[in-house]
Each structure stands twice: as C-alpha cells, then as structure tokens.
Amino acid sequence: MLGSIKGPDDVKRLAAEELPGLAGEIRDLLVDSCARFGGHLGPNLGVVELTLAVHRVFDSPRDPIVWDTGHQAYVHKLLTGRAAGFAALKQEGGLSGYPSQAESEHDFVENSHASTALSYADGLAKAFKVRGEHDRTVVAVIGDGALTGGMAWEALNNIAAGADLPVVIVVNDNGRSYSPTIGGLASHLSSLRVNRRYEDFLDYVKDKIGNVPLLYDALHGVKKGVKDVLAPQVMFEDLGLKYLGPIDGHDEQAMEAALRKARDFRGPVIVHAVTQKGRGYTPAENHDEDQFHGPGPFDKVTGQEKPKGRIWTNVFSEELVRLGKERDDIVAITAAMLHPTGLNAFAEAYPERIYDVGIAEQHALTSAAGLALGGMHPVVAVYATFLNRAFDQLLMDVALHRLPVTVVLDRAGVTGDDGASHNGMWDLSILQVVPGLRIAVPRDGDRLTELLREAVEVTDGPTVLRFPKGPVAEAVEPVGKLGEMDLLRAPVGEPDVLLVGVGPMAQVCLDAAVMLDAQGIAATVVDPRWVKPLDEALVLAASAHKLVAVVEDNGRVGGVGDAVARLLRDADVDVPVRTYGIPQEFLDHAKRAAILGQIGLTGQDLARQITEAVAKRTSHVEPARQ
C-alpha cells in the first residue's frame, strides 16, 4: 500500500481495516532505511498510528502540521509522497532528517530545535484569523520531552488566551525525549499513564486547589508539571483550553475520534496520546538507553549498531570522570542528552553530582550559575548548536558575575547529516562578545584532555571548550611554543605565511603547508589552543610574515579570523589577514568531509587560495595548478 500513497488524500481513501497493514509497511521501511544510514528510528516507530490519524482528520497543507521536534516526522514524510526518497535518507542530495520547506508544501518549518511548535502554531492561527481564513486548523505535535522547555509554556499561555483560535495540540507522551523525560513534568505524566482511577485523580486535584484563585491555579499547574495542567479539565476550561485523553496513541481509530472532536471544537484543544517509543521493533523496544532514538547504521536483525570507533565525545567523557574523582566540587549538567554528550559515565560514577534539566538550555546555564555561586564548578555539556538558546544566560547570569562555569560544546563546526540547524557554526562568533569568557579549541584528543583540565582550573570567569562530531583526530605534537600557542611547523629560512589553525583545522593547515612548500612558499603553522583571549605572541609572530591566514570550523563572520585581524589592527601590525571558515549560510545536509570539501576547508583548497593571495603580492610565485 505504501507505494500507492502520493499524499494525504490517498491516506483518507483507505478503509479502516487497511490501516494496520499500512502501519506495518511503514515500520518495515523505517527499520530498513535507518539500518542502512542511521536516523531517528525510535521516535518515528512510536508515532505511526498517531500520524495516520492526523492526516486522515486534517487537510494538510491547508491545515498546517508543525512537528516538535521534527525528528518524529518521518512518517509524515512517507504519507506526503516521499517514500521513494527514503532510499537516501540523510544522504547528500536525499531527504533531510527533519521537515524541510524545500522538500514539500506539507513541511511548514524545519523545527529541529525543541519546544518551538506551540509558538509557531500560535502565530499561524492568529495569521489565519486576521486573514479571515476561519476554516483552517493548526496542528502542533509535541513530544512530552519538548514540554520541559520553558518556551513551550510561554506559547501555551498565549494559546490559552485565544479561545477562538483553532489550534490542536497533540502531546505525544512516550515518557522520553532522548532518554526518559526528566523532572516533575515527567513524573506527573507517568503517574497519569498508570493511574487506573482517572476520576479519582481529578477529584483529588479539585479538592486540593479548587478554592484557590485562578491565577494561582495556573501558576501552580505549571510549577507541578504538565499533568496538573493537562489532567484537570475544569482548570483547562477556565483557561480556555479543552483536554481530551489520555488516549492510546497506537489505536488509530481512537486517535481519529479524538482528533475529529478537537478539530470540530474550533478553539484550542489538547489531545493527550500515550505512545511507546520504538513500537513494533523488538531491539528498539528493549533498548533501555533511548529506544533507538537516533542510532547509526545497524544490523536490522539483531539491532546491533555498527562500530563507530573512538570519537571526541569518548575522550571528554573519560577525562571528566577522572576529574570528578580528583575534585568533589565538579558537577555536570545536561539538557536531556546524558548519553549523546557523554555524561552518562560521570552519572554512573557520581550520581549525586549530575543534573539532567530536560530540554531547557536556558535554565541549565542559570542553574549552573547558582551552583557556581554555591561553591561548585559546573560543567555544562550541550551540542554547540543548542548553546545559541542560552546565550543571554551565559552573558548576563554567568559572565556578568565572573562565575567559574565550564561549557563543553559537542558537535561544534560542521556536523553534516542533520542539516542546517545542527551545524555548530555560530558559537565562535556569538561568544566573542562575552566579557571575561575564555574559549579553548583542541586539535586532537590529547589537547582535549589538556584543555579541559585547564578550563576547570579557571576560577574568575566562564570557560568554553568545543570539539567536532566524529572520530577523534590523531595526536599532533608541537615542535615548539610561541607564547602559550603550540608551534606545529617552523619553515626553514624566511617565512612567508603564518597559518593559524583553530582546533581540528590545524591538521588542514599542516596539509596545506606541505603543498605551499612545493610552490616555494614557506609556511609557519600554529595552534592557538585558547582562541579567546588571543595570545599576544601572535602579534610578534604575524609581524614576521607577509600574510596571515586563519582557518576555523566556524562561520567566517565574527569568528576567530576577525578577532585575529582586530588584534593586529590594534597593535598597528599591517600584515594582511585572510580568514577561511564556513560561509555564512545554511548548509544542506551531507557528510562532514563532503561539506568541508564543498566550502573549501581542505588542505588542497587552502593551499590554492593562499598561493593565489601570495601571488598578488610577489611576482616570483605563480598560482598553484589545480
């Protein structure tokens, strides 16, 4: 049947008795595709029937469907005519792992950063009202993990105020974001899932807080968790929201019935669907860590992932455990990504010193500030792309108070497969403006352990350590020092070009230096190690060269290259500076190596560009042949 589905109308035409067969085909295709390339398997296995019901009840794209987060939208893609594209899921030129406006009119937003769907839905519904399009309904499908984000509650507060806004909020309650959902919110959802006397629960709530003023009721519900707001129907009616559920999210007919009621109400309604992450694939159902949330390629018979080898995250994880043994003031914080950021090992060793705050990066940073004020040294581990969400907290809550908080940014630079929203290409730019912040960028595993130790020794302000996704780079030992910078290559004779390789780009600079030498251009290669503040020794080193080239795995605008140029300007050193990095644009998904080649961050590309730059200044050097 799946091959005949070209769009939602084809789904609507199916008889109810045909749907279980289609659901089975969808699960088979999901397992096959993710086994080959990796992908967000567990979340999508859990929303098959839910997604079928959504597309049978609503009229996408006239009724926008917004997914939070977009990693649970694979089934949506299959039902909107993209089954053939799953042969190249997350591959260069193939389907994105998230909704994509470029792929389909059915994808309104990419939405791969959590807790945003309700805000999109609020704005869309208001726009339709202003335009007089009263026959349109906005559907937001939000995972219970995304409800741990404060932004979701800000949106919910506004949606509740619009009694005539047709917004249907489907809470996909599987008890997990990546790992089990953390916090009071999760506890309340869990208690309702196993409560046999739902009416007794409602009576209890009404008895306890029924006589308290409405404003306090609302705030109390937010404080205690989503279930105290979702469960008491009286409270929702007072707030302007209706509640349906809990409903078995794998009972397609029950989901359809609930969604039709919600659609016909023509106001804000929450439909609470209880689902099982990894449903229908035994290895995922039995995977305690994350129900195959986002595995790499695996054997579909056994579920065994193919070996990844040693990655940067492993090095960080092991060193933090060692530091935890040496220092009892070190604590760790994760935003619902205990295993992906490597903090699971620290949690096992020191369970009393690990805090999972849910999908709440802003809270993570300010909570870290409080821990630091209390005499601890917090290590906050997040993906680089998600630090964007907590910039204000890092600036005003941590740096303003000069607090010793270490932020570790995994998946920095080009990450590739997950597309534009996941490339960690902004941090070295936005962090340049934070007073008193120190930023370290290791080029290999040995430097990662070295710099992490230096970072947690800092007591008068925050530090940041960033490293990329994938296999850890082989160690590159220095041949000397320039100030506190590592000298990686010193040319024989008078030097022409100073190559400043930021972190993993140091190896790219070394590769380029060999090619430049073949062109008669003598290159010095240094690794700054700490890129904020820059070492003053860089001024003297630059003045001894004809050209300075800064190479970084970050956006070119406002990054380390701009900081180097500013340093030299302030010192009245007029040596020209060339900056090489990621173009300031949203990159399509592809493997990291492929993207680095496309944007010119390889040794060969760098050598060619520098040769051409030198040729413009000296007549005796000819441009390198391609």
Explained architecture:
The structure is a single chain. With 626 residues, the protein is α/β, with parallel strands linked by helices. Helix content is 40%, strand content 15%. A 7-stranded mixed β-sheet has the order 7-6-8-9-11-10-16, sandwiched between helices. Strand 17 (547-555), helix 24 (560-570) and strand 18 (577-582) form a beta-alpha-beta unit. Helix 4 (48-57) crosses helix 13, helix 6 (117-130) packs parallel to helix 7 and helix 22 crosses helix 26. The longest helix is centred in the first third of the chain and has 19 residues, at 19-37. It is globular, with a radius of gyration of 27 Å.
* Low-confidence parts: 177-206, 208-236, 620-626
Rounded radius of gyration (Å)? 27 Å
Query: Mean of residue pLDDT?
Result: 88
**What gross morphology would you assign?**
globular
Strand proportion, as a percent range, falls in 5-15%
Helix-strand category = alpha/beta
Helix content: 40-55%
The biggest beta sheet is recorded as: 7 strands, mixed
The DSSP helix count reads 26
Question: How far apart lie the N and C ends?
Answer: 51 Å
DSSP, total strands: 18
